[in-house]
Write a structure and sequence with these properties.
The protein is of the alpha/beta class. It contains 12 helices and 9 strands. An 8-stranded mixed barrel has the order 1-2-4-5-6-7-8-9, surrounded by 5 helices. Helix 11 links the parallel strand 8 and strand 9. Helix 3 packs parallel to helix 5. The termini are far apart. 30% of the residues are buried. Bound molecules: ligand C2E and calcium ion (CA) (3 copies). The site of one calcium ion (CA) has 4 residues, from strand 6. This is EAL domain-containing protein. It comes from Peloplasma aerotolerans. One of its GO terms (molecular function) is cyclic-guanylate-specific phosphodiesterase activity. Keywords: Membrane, Transmembrane, Transmembrane helix.
Length: 278
C-alpha cells in the first residue's frame, strides 16, 4: 500500500514537474515572442443579430511558437499573468489594436475594437495612466475601444475596480463584462460599475436549444440587462438556430463561428469592405 502511495505521489510530482517545466519554457520564450512576430492578434467580428452585419471586433492574441506550434491563449496567459510581463502584453495588444483601428479609420471604417484585460492589469495603479499615454499617441476616440473584464475580476476588489473603471468610463471607453453568468454575480451587483455591455458566456449559448431552464435564465438576463441600458452580446454562436433563438429572446448582438472565426487584418478588411455604404 505504501508503494502504491509513493507511486501515486511520484506521478503527481512528475506531472507537476512537467507543468512547471512547460511554464518555465513558456515564460522564457514569451519575452522575445512578443517582439519577434511570433505573437500577433486575430480579430473576431461582433454581429448585429437583426441586420446580421458586423458592428464591432474583438482582439484575440495568438502565438505561433517555433517548436510548440500554435499555443492557445488559455495555455500561456495564466502563466504570463503570474509575472509582470502581463503589463507589457496588454499594452502591446492595446497598441496593435489602436494601429488596426487607425488603419480601418483611414479606410472609412469605424467599429469599436474590444481588448481583454487581466486582473493584474486592472489592479495595477499605473494601468490607467499608461493606457492613456498610449492612447494619446494615436488619434483615436476612446469610444472606439472596449475593455473586456470578467465579473470574477470585479468581485476580487469592487472598490478599486469601480475607481479605475470610472476613470476609463469618464474618458469615453466602452466597458464589457466578459463571460457573464459564469461567476455567480448578479446584474444588481454589476450595476454599480460603469458598464456598457454584457457578454453572455458560451456555457449558456451551447445549451440554449435543448435546455428550457437555460432559455428562461437567458431571457430574464437579457430583459434586465436591457432595462439597465446594457448592450447584450451572445458569445459562441455556432448555428443559425441558436442565433435565431437568441435574437427572439432579445439578444442584440453575437459572436461565433457561425459568423466568422477570428481572422487576420487583411481578411477582416476584405470582409468589412463588403458592408460599406450599404
Ligand atoms: P474570451 O475572451 O471569452 O474569448 C472568446 C473565445 O472563444 C476565443 O478563444 C474565441 O476564439 C472563442 N470563440 C469564438 N467564437 C466561438 C464559437 O462559436 N465556438 C467556440 N467553441 N469558441 C468560440 P481564444 O481566442 O482561444 O481565447 C481564449 C481566451 O483567452 C479568451 O476568452 C480570453 O479570456 C483569453 N484571451 C485571448 N486574447 C487575450 C488577450 O489579448 N489578453 C488577455 N488578457 N486574454 C486574452
Ligand atoms: Ca473576451
Ligand atoms: Ca468571453
Ligand atoms: Ca472565456
Amino acid at each position: 500500500r505504501e508503494a502504491k502511495k509513493n507511486h501515486l505521489a511520484s506521478m503527481i510530482y512528475s506531472d507537476l514537474n512537467t507543468q512547471k517545466e512547460f511554464e518555465y519554457e513558456i515564460l522564457s520564450d514569451f519575452k522575445n515572442a512578443l517582439n519577434n512576430g511570433q505573437i500577433y492578434l486575430m480579430y473576431q467580428p461582433k454581429i448585429d443579430l437583426k441586420t446580421r452585419k458586423p458592428i464591432g471586433l474583438e482582439a484575440l492574441i495568438r502565438w505561433n511558437h517555433p517548436t510548440k506550434k500554435q499555443i492557445k491563449p488559455d495555455q500561456f496567459i495564466p502563466s504570463v499573468e503570474n509575472t509582470n510581463m502581463i503589463h507589457e502584453m496588454t499594452e502591446t495588444v492595446f497598441r496593435w489594436s489602436l494601429e488596426f483601428q487607425k488603419k480601418l479609420n483611414d479606410k472609412g471604417i469605424e467599429l469599436p475594437i474590444s481588448i481583454n484585460i487581466s486582473t493584474k492589469n486592472l489592479y495595477n495603479k499605473d494601468f490607467y495612466n499608461r493606457m492613456s499615454k498610449i492612447l494619446k499617441e494615436y488619434n483615436i476616440k476612446p469610444s472606439l475601444i472596449e475593455l473586456e473584464i470578467t465579473e470574477t475580476i470585479l468581485m476580487e476588489n469592487p472598490e478599486d475596480s469601480k475607481l479605475i473603471l470610472d476613470s476609463f468610463s469618464n474618458e469615453g471607453y466602452r466597458i464589457a463584462i466578459d463571460d457573464f453568468g459564469k461567476g455567480y454575480s448578479s446584474l444588481d451587483y454589476i450595476a454599480q460599475f460603469p458598464i456598457t455591455t454584457i457578454k453572455v458566456d458560451r456555457f449558456f449559448t451551447k445549451q440554449i436549444l435543448i435546455n428550457p431552464t437555460t432559455q428562461h435564465i437567458v431571457k430574464a438576463t437579457i430583459d434586465l440587462a436591457k432595462q439597465l441600458g446594457y448592450e447584450v452580446v451572445i458569445e459562441g454562436v455556432e448555428d443559425v438556430e441558436t442565433a435565431d433563438l437568441m435574437q427572439k429572446l432579445g439578444g442584440q448582438s453575437a459572436q461565433g463561428y457561425l459568423f466568422m472565426r477570428p481572422r487576420g487584418e487583411d481578411e477582416l478588411i476584405t470582409y468589412l469592405n463588403q458592408y460599406r455604404d450599404e
